[in-house]
Amino acid sequence: MSKAILGAHSIVKEEEESRQVREVEKHFAHPNYFNHIVGNDLMLLKLKEPVNTTKSVKWLQLGKIVKDPPDGTKCLVAGWGVTEENHISDVLKSVRVTVIGRHKCNSCEYYNYAPLITSDMVCAGSNGKKAADTCQGDSGGPLLCGFHLVGVTSFGAGCGNIYKPGIYSFLSKRQLKWIKETMKS
After folding, report:
1. Are residues 55 and 81 located together in one domain of the fold?
2. Among 44, 95, 99, 151, which is least packed, fewest CB within 10 Å?
3. d(CA 45, CA 30)
4. In angstroms, what CA-CA distances link 28 with 13, 32, 45, 47, 83?
5. Neighbours of 29 (CB within 10 A)
6. Which sequence ranges are marked TM in the entry (predicted)?
7. Of 113, 93, 91, nearest in space to 37 by CA
8. Would 178 be classed as within a structural domain?
């Protein structure tokens, strides 16, 4: 049985006052998901019990339309994934990343169309000076730009490579429609 842990800062310590554990009743994979490189790398979870809003657990409002972040936009990503020490972090980590336009991300200097970065994806990573990226174990984590959920961590080629930045599933109008329709059912 899958479980969701909410309000946790550490995945090791039992933070009783802030941690909420809920069993997952059902998984809803995006119907057009085939492979994260092709896109539609989204999944919704229906929990068996409601979640309590607390200081550590808050609702994130989904917008009617999420604006495509332009090249150079500073965003925040977070997760418990692999760190530069090459081990899973026991505490939640976050880092600021910079959006790299799709045209540039598809150029021969970056991904060279292998894979094709589509309009349902956001490319974001280092600003060219210091490595900033998500890594294995961060998938499904948020891409927040200006306090708005813009995307979800999907994949990358390695970790912290300036020319192979992280790729995020963009919450495009089409993806938001699927999310809202699925949540109603």
Report:
1. no
2. 44
3. 11
4. 30, 11, 6, 11, 29
5. 12
6. none
7. 113
8. no
Indicate if 158 and 96 belong to the same structural domain.
yes
**Which residues fall within 8 angstroms of residue 92, CB to CB, at 6 or more apart?**
8, 9, 10, 78, 79, 80
Predicted pLDDT at 63: 76
Whether the Cβ atoms of residue 80 and residue 86 lie closer than 8 Å to each other: no
Residue 162: both structure tokens together:
């300036």
Per the structure, the complete domain to which residue 37 belongs is given by 3-59
Distance (Å) of CA 53 to CA 15, 17, 34, 139: 16, 12, 34, 24
Q: Using alpha carbons only, how large is the chain's radius of gyration in Å? A: 17
pLDDT, tens digit (0-9, with 9 covering 90-100), for 46-58:
999 999 999 999 9
Instruction: Write out pLDDT tens, residues 131-141.
Output: 899 999 999 99
pTM equals: 0.92
Domain contains 167: yes
Query: Each residue of 113-122: b (16+ CB within 10 Å) or e?
Result: eebebeebbb
